[in-house]
Write a structure and sequence with these properties.
Blueprint (H helix, E strand, L loop, with lengths): L1 H23 L2 H10 L4 H22 L5 H24 L19 H19 L18 H45 L5 H5 L18 E3 L5 E3 H5 L5 E5 L5 H17 L4 E7 L2 H8 L6 E5 L3 H6 L6 E5 L10 E2 L1 H12 L28 E3 L5 E3 L8 E6 L4 H5 L1 H10 L6 E6 L3 H5 L7 E3 L4 H6 L6 E5 L10 E2 L1 H7 L5
Parallel strand pairs: 3-4, 4-5, 10-11, 11-12
Antiparallel strand pairs: 1-2, 3-6, 6-7, 8-9, 10-13, 13-14
Helix pairs in contact: 1-3, 1-5, 1-6, 2-3, 3-4, 4-5
Length: about 500
């Protein structure tokens, strides 16, 4: 019986020391896990240090027979606190990361972690029931009862625990390095577009490039993992901004980021709707991406929806306003996604104009009121900023010597002639000569802005470029540069 009690103490001591060391190796993660369990922020930081310290103290107390009973009591009480916290979170429908073994191993709270802690608590309670004087063989004392075999058993046990902890730790490091390697391989494949045609290679853009902030998000219809068709307009009916994640079941970095996505989803569930755009079949997506929270996973056949948004990398995230307009740049990769989410957390969701400065540095003119101006157009008609109120306006900056401007001229004239009543008016600012601009045959007013006073004030310097102004005279888009970006502001693809 004494040997059996010693064996239980060694098991519990090993568990507590590995848990304590694992948490010390990731104090930041420990603090986050404690906050996720509902502990106030001002207490989370000191507790993130005290908790692993207490676990190591419990492990030390369990080793000598003379102190093992006290170690068992403290361990049992700590495990009860863990179990109680888990049960409460599960009852609330939450699954925070338990961070049970810190950097060595962690997982969302669930039946598995609950049962494991329950078994440890039963072992601790069994030691308590044996009484203070009956904790089994001693492995530290040199009394007559402490045999050479017990000492050797202690040395071997400690060495085994140390080797196990070291092995698990280095396996964790290897796993993280593998994730980094896979991420780099994926990036290299995307940059090289190996196996694709030369035409596709020419179209490759920066991973953060996409639709301009303020542009309407493209419509789409995709099946979810249950086979039900879901349209973009249905997602907007939930009256919440949407955080899109473009992922894949074969994407290693996506899987590595999943625990963090689960935590963000729990934290922002009342403010933001999380939607995953993936590929492949339902089963492999549920196996790889389901995580701890219920997810809305939509399945594209290839990359048709990703290409609509310009999201050619995985993982990539994009924030879309509740009115269906693009509200951030694409965030490609785990670091950019974390930065985007942190900025979303800091935003005021009561604002009537929500957008995120991320990625390539969204234009600072967003959300500002168009400055007052009054100037004559090509035909001596006075155009004032107040004339733009009451309807959306697309203001473009143009040049008759710009080949890119001229190449989109035919499409621009067609749009002017056939645009719908709900589409914006057009105002052209140009730095060309009067006759050259008149020869463009545009129906909309054209103002010569040779000194670029108006265009620079709005935030346009290159040609062709454009911004959207809303009915109140507020700039509601970043500067779109180039024909493709300008058409994107109008919800069109050219």
């Amino acid at each position: 019986m004494d040997d059996f009690l010693l064996f239980i103490r060694l098991i519990l001591a090993a568990i507590f020391v590995v848990a304590g060391i694992g948490k010390f190796l990731d104090l930041e993660g420990s603090e986050k896990a404690i906050k996720d369990f509902g502990v106030p922020g001002n207490l989370a930081k000191p507790l993130s240090v005290l908790l692993p310290f207490a676990e190591i103290v419990i492990a030390v107390l369990l080793l000598p027979a003379t102190t093992a009973w006290f170690g068992a009591i403290l361990g049992f009480l700590l495990l009860l606190v863990f179990i109680g916290g888990m049960l409460y979170q599960m009852a609330q429908g939450n699954a925070p990361d338990c961070h049970c073994f810190g950097q060595i191993h962690s997982e969302p709270v669930g039946a598995k972690s609950l049962i494991r802690n329950g078994i440890f608590a039963i072992l601790s309670f069994f030691l308590i029931l044996q009484g203070r004087e009956n904790q089994g063989a001693s492995i530290l004392d040199s009394s007559n009862d402490a045999t050479e075999g017990n000492v050797m058993s202690f040395i071997l046990s400690v060495a085994t625990v140390g080797l196990l902890a070291a092995a698990v730790y280095f396996l964790k490091l290897i796993s993280e390095q593998q994730t980094q390697i896979m991420r780099r391989i994926e990036i290299l494949e995307l940059v090289s577009h190996e196996g694709r045609t030369e035409t596709e290679r020419e179209n490759l853009s920066n991973p953060h490039d996409g639709l301009p902030i303020g542009a309407p998000a493209p419509d789409f219809i995709l099946p979810d993992v249950n086979g039900k068709s879901v349209a973009f307009e249905q997602l907007l009916m939930q009256a919440k901004p949407i955080l899109f994640f473009f992922v894949s079941p074969t994407c290693v970095p996506c899987a590595a980021l999943l625990p963090e996505i689960d935590a963000w989803q729990r934290e922002l569930k009342d403010k933001v709707n999380f939607v995953f755009i993936s590929s492949g079949n339902a089963k492999e997506n549920l196996d790889k991406l389901a995580g701890a929270n219920l997810k809305q996973i939509l399945l594209q056949k290839d990359r048709e929806v990703s290409e609509l948004f310009g999201a050619q990398w995985t993982p990539t995230a994009l924030f879309v306003n509740s009115d269906g307009t693009i509200a951030s740049h694409l965030a490609a990769g785990d670091k950019a996604i974390r930065e985007l989410v942190e900025k979303i957390k800091a935003e005021n969701f009561d604002s009537d104009f929500l957008f995120i400065h991320n990625g390539n540095g969204a234009a600072t003119k967003l959300g500002t009121i168009l400055r007052e101006f009054s100037q004559t157009d090509l035909f001596d008609k006075t155009i004032a900023s107040k004339d733009l109120l009451g309807k959306k306006t697309l203001i473009t900056f143009w040049s008759t010597t710009c080949s890119h401007c001229i190449s989109m001229l035919d499409d621009l004239r067609d749009w002017e002639q056939f645009k719908g009543a709900d589409e914006p008016d057009l105002l052209v600012l140009s730095d060309g000569e009067v006759e050259a601009n008149r020869s463009l045959n545009l129906q909309s007013p054209v103002i010569l802005d040779k000194e670029r006073k108006i265009s620079n004030e709005i935030g346009m310097s290159g040609t062709p470029s454009a911004v959207l102004i809303n009915e109140d005279g507020k700039i509601v888009s970043e500067t779109a540069l180039g024909a493709a970006q300008i058409w994107a502001l109008l919800g069109k693809k050219k």
